[in-house]
Write a structure and sequence with these properties.
Blueprint lengths: L23 E4 L7 H12 L4 E3 L14 H8 L2 E5 L8 E2 L3 E4 L3 E2 L10 H4 L6 E4 L2 H15 L4 E4 L10 H4 L1 H10 L4 E7 L16 E7 L2 H7 L6 H13 L4 E8 L5 H15 L8 E7 L4 H10 L13 E4 L5 E4 L2 H18 L4 E5 L1
Helix pairs in contact: 9-11
Length: 357
């Protein structure tokens, strides 16, 4: 299917997201040893896009731009096709036992995104072509934990739905886990491009989640993503296709009128969701957080952002490796948690809240 390029205006304003297509493409030489790598090389060669080789998907040089901001925006429009050499999967608590590394990076421009810390200096979109090796490693992890169920999160470092039209890797993963009695797949998206996944043989072993938020957050901090209405329509399609459905409400953000804003979000969900969505529905609640590194990069890349990042008004929460993040003080976090849990219980009494963090 022919795809349209992402309107460049959508990367900076709040307009709706079209399918991402890169302006610049890099390949690791080893990627051409795999069928998907060769297919992508032929595709972009036929389209006349500039293709360059790179020794490593971790060190891509030559992305144009006279300023750091220009280089960043061009990097977000750059696709790097590589081989995932590290097959030791990272943990992904509390969402899952392991992260499933299908891709790294995202073409959207969410101001608050934690990828500003995780892949801060490498914001380009990386896709991996050695999926059979990745799935084989996942199967080894499943066997190690048998007879327990092992969950894998496919959206730790990317939005896989936003690049599915490029690789098809997400559908392959869904069908792989559909044949794993003790394996489960999870991912979350801010995009509505789900049609190619509706006929996947998932066997109800993939939980398909959508990231949702109050209007204030979507309009101010999520440019280049699908609208609330588009995500909601896509959620209905997914539910009717038999997938277990979930919503991640993140980041939970305290703006003026946040209580009414989040109540409105949940009431709109309740009013418009198809009945099939209610059968096995989950919510995950994640408060806004930022790191010192992320704050610096966010202010460089989005200098007009309205995102509040005042360390004096936050609590410092230590994480692994001696690094931490700024979250809301306990009292404010508990207010967020109590309000969201109360409204979810009122509107979705059968739903399960998996965690608040």
């Amino acid at each position: 299917m022919e795809t349209t390029r992402l309107n460049k205006a959508a990367s900076t304003d709040g307009s709706e997201a079209n399918l991402f297509e890169p302006d610049f493409v890099f390949f690791e030489p080893a990627a051409l040893d795999y069928p998907l790598g060769r297919e992508l090389y032929r595709r972009y060669q036929q389209r006349g896009l500039p293709i360059r080789m790179t020794t490593s998907h971790n060190q891509v040089r030559g992305i144009p731009g006279e300023t750091e901001v220009q280089q960043y925006r061009n990097a977000k429009r750059t696709l790097v096709v590589g081989v995932r050499k590290t097959l030791k999967f990272e943990p992904s608590k509390p969402s899952a036992e392991y992260a499933l590394p299908l891709a790294t990076g995202c073409a959207a421009h969410c101001h608050y995104c934690y990828l500003n810390t995780n892949i801060g200096t490498r914001p380009y979109v990386r896709v991996y072509v050695n999926t059979e090796e990745i799935f084989a490693q996942a199967e080894r992890y499943i066997r190690e934990r048998a007879p327990r169920i092992t969950r894998f999160e496919a959206a730790c470092t990317s939005d896989p739905v936003g690049i599915e039209h490029i690789t098809g890797n997400l559908k392959r993963a869904i069908e792989f886990f559909g044949n794993q009695p003790l394996g489960r797949l999870r991912f979350v998206t801010k995009f509505h491009h789900v049609d190619s996944l509706l006929d996947a043989r998932h066997n109800k072993q993939t939980r398909f989640r959508f990231s949702m938020n109050a209007d204030y957050v979507i309009k101010n901090f999520e440019p280049g993503t699908s609208s609330f209405e588009q995500r909601l329509e896509a959620a209905g399609k997914v539910a009717r296709a038999g997938y277990p459905l979930g919503f991640i409400l993140a980041p939970l953000y305290r703006f003026d009128g946040w209580e009414a804003g989040y109540t409105d979000l949940l009431e709109r969900l309740r009013q418009q969701l198809v009945p099939e969505a209610m059968e096995d529905l989950t919510f995950e609640l994640i408060q806004h957080r930022f790191t010192t590194v992320a704050k610096k990069l966010i202010l460089q890349r989005y200098p007009k952002t309205r995102l509040e990042m005042n360390e004096a008004e936050r609590k410092y929460k230590w994480g692994k490796y001696g690094r931490g993040k700024y979250v809301y003080p306990d009292e404010q976090a508990k207010e967020l948690q109590a309000h969201l849990e109360r409204e979810i219980a009122r509107l979705f009494p059968q739903a399960k809240i998996e965690y608040f963090t």
